[in-house]
Amino acid sequence: MNHSAPAIRPVLVCLFLAGSVASAGAQGVPAEAAVPIQDNSFLVEEAYNQEGGVVQHISTFARPRGGGAWSYSFTQEWPLRGQRHQLGFTLPVESAEGPRGGTGVGDLALNYRWQVLGIGGSRVALAPRVSALLPTGDEERGRGAGGAGVQANLPLSVALSGRWVAHSNAGLTHTFAARNELGQEAGTTAFNLGQSLVWLARPRLNLMLEAAWSRDEEVAGADATRHGTSLFLAPGIRGAVDLASGLQVVPGVAVPIGVGPSDGERALFLYLSFEHPFGARRD
User: Fold this and answer.
1) For residue 144, what are the CA distances in angstroms to 74, 139, 185, 193?
2) What average pLDDT does range 68-74 have in this prediction?
3) Which of 17, 25, 74, 245 qualifies as a FRET site for 111, CA 20 to 30 Å off?
C-alpha cells in the first residue's frame, strides 16, 4: 500500500476535528455523561456487545504498500433482546492483482457473540464469538477459501485505569475443505493472537497500539497444506462525534507495520463506524 504522508494527513485532520467537536459538545455536560468510546479496535476485537436497541455499521479499508491490491469489509452488529446476545455479519470485497485477480466479493461471515462479562459497565468484559464462514468468494481469483468453515475468537477487555484499556484476543479458523486455484482440496486451520492498548486521551479521542499475530494454512496439494506466520504492530487513532439524533460517528486510521516474519510489510488501514438507536432499548 502506498500510504504517503499527504494521503494520511487529511484523515488525521478529520480525527482531530472529531475529537475537538466531541470535546466541545461535552462542555457543561456531567462527567458521567461523557462515556468513553467502546468501539471496535482495528486489528483486535473488543469485548463489548451492542446495547439493546442500538445497531452498528462498520466499514474498514486496507491497502498494502506497493501494488494495487486492497480489501474492504462491511459489518453490521445487532443486539438480540438486549446486550447479552449479538448477531451480525461481515461481507468483504477484495481486489487482487495478477491475470486471475480482479475485484469481487469474498467469503461471508455470520457472527454470534455472547456477553459473558461486562454488562453494566464492569471493569472486565468477556464476549466469545463464533462465526459461520460461507464460501461466497472465488478461490480461483484469490478471494475465498473455497469451502465452508467456522471461526471462534475470545476477546477480553480490561479497564486498567480511568485512562488505559487493554484488549486481548485468541482465536482459530478452520475450513473443512479449502480449495486452491487448481481445485485441490485440504482442510486448513489458522490461529490468531492479538493485544491492544488504548489510551483515552479524551472520552472522544483515543490513541491505540495493537499487535496481531497469525499462523495461517493454505492448500499446497490434494490433502496437503503449507503454513506461514505474520506479525504486525499498528499504531492508530480514532475519534467520535455524537449527534443530537443519537447517531455516533467514529472514524479511525492505523498503519500496520510488519515485524519478524512480516518485516518490510506495511499497510494503510481506515475505519468508519456509524452507531444509532433503532427501537426501544433493553438492557
Assistant:
1) 16, 4, 13, 22
2) 93
3) 245
Q: What is the pLDDT of residue 31?
A: 37
- pLDDT band with cut points at 50, 70 and 90 for residue 159: very high
Using CA atoms, how far residue 253 sits from 41, 64, 201, 213, 272, in Å, is 10, 14, 16, 19, 9
| DSSP codes joined into one string, the chain | ----HHHHHHHHHHHHHHHHHHHHHHTTS-GGG-PPP----SSS--S-PPPTTEEEEEEEEEEESSSS-EEEEEEEEEESSSSSEEEEEEEEEEEE-STT-EEEE--EEEEEEE--B-TTS-SEEE--EEEEEE--S-GGGTSS-SS-EEEEEEEEEEE-SSSEEEEEEEEEEEEEEEE-TT--EEEEEEEEEEEEEEEEEETTEEEEEEEEEEEEEEEEETTEEEEEEEEEEEEEEEE-EE-TTS-EEEEEEE--EE-GGGTT-BEEEEEEEEEEE-S----
> Could you give the dihedral angle defined by the CA atoms of residues 216, 156, 264 and 256, in that order, rounded to the nearest 10 degrees?
120
Mean pLDDT, the chain, whole residue set: 86
Please tell me the distance from the alpha carbon of residue 99 to that of residue 269, in angstroms, as a whole number: 26
Q: Identify whether the C-beta of residue 235 lies closer than 8 Å to the C-beta of residue 206.
A: no
pTM above 0.70, yes or no: yes
Residue in the block written with cell 480514532: 238
Scanning the structure block, which residue is given the C-alpha cell 436497541? 53
Q: Which CATH architecture has domain 5-277?
A: Beta Barrel (2.40)
- d(C-alpha 138, C-alpha 240), whole Å: 36
